[in-house]
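Weekly puzzle thread! Below is a chain. First person to post its structure in token form gets bragging rights.
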Amino acid sequence: MRTIVKILARLLSLALAGALAGGCLLAALGYKMYRQALDARSLEATIAAVQADPGYTPIDQLPPLYLDAVVAVEDHRFAQHSGIDPIAILRAAVHDLRTRSLDQGGSTITQQVAKNLFFTQEKRFTRKIAEVFMAFRLEDACTKDEILELYVNTIYFGDGYYGIRDACAGYFGKEPAQLTPYEATLLAGIPNAPSVYSLTANPDLAAQRQQYVVGQMVKFGYLTAEDAAAITPPAA
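Winning reply:
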């Protein structure tokens, strides 16, 4: 019996050592990818290029309701974390291990900005680690408002629309400041899965997602139940 216990203990030690070595290797590769991205173009130059786009919309030209909706549905601890959300990452890791996939990454708004600015959408552990390093760099260099502004100007809304101004013009024929509460909460839900919630391809699913967004806003204190009930689609 003691022999079996010793063997099991050694196997466990080897497994832990292997996991630690593998984790260190992934961290090193992720850091290398992060440094290569910054060496190719600095954070400051990358942000300046995004802001130079004619369609770039400053945060003070966006409805506060839309911004609240984005934070509520995408990253409700955005104001508190420093780039990553350990709780969301742990929840996503449990899901991914259970499903043997990378379906959920637990990404914060800051991580998504890092990915949109510097990396591809490919689901790889190395890229996720590079994304974390870049998220920390963004949090050091930018305010929360600046990060949120970059996010809404770089995310994909489906149907070929990138950024909030492009989406508003394409879907509603208006400027972001003119969004109704229903339109604002509708758009906030699309980037989670643009092909699924496309207003052109799947308007019913987009409407269901809008209801989820409003529910999250109530859950996290951005709206009262009465205010939420007043956000209704336009009459047919």
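Puzzle host: Confirmed. Bonus trivia for everyone else. The longest helix spans residues 2-40.
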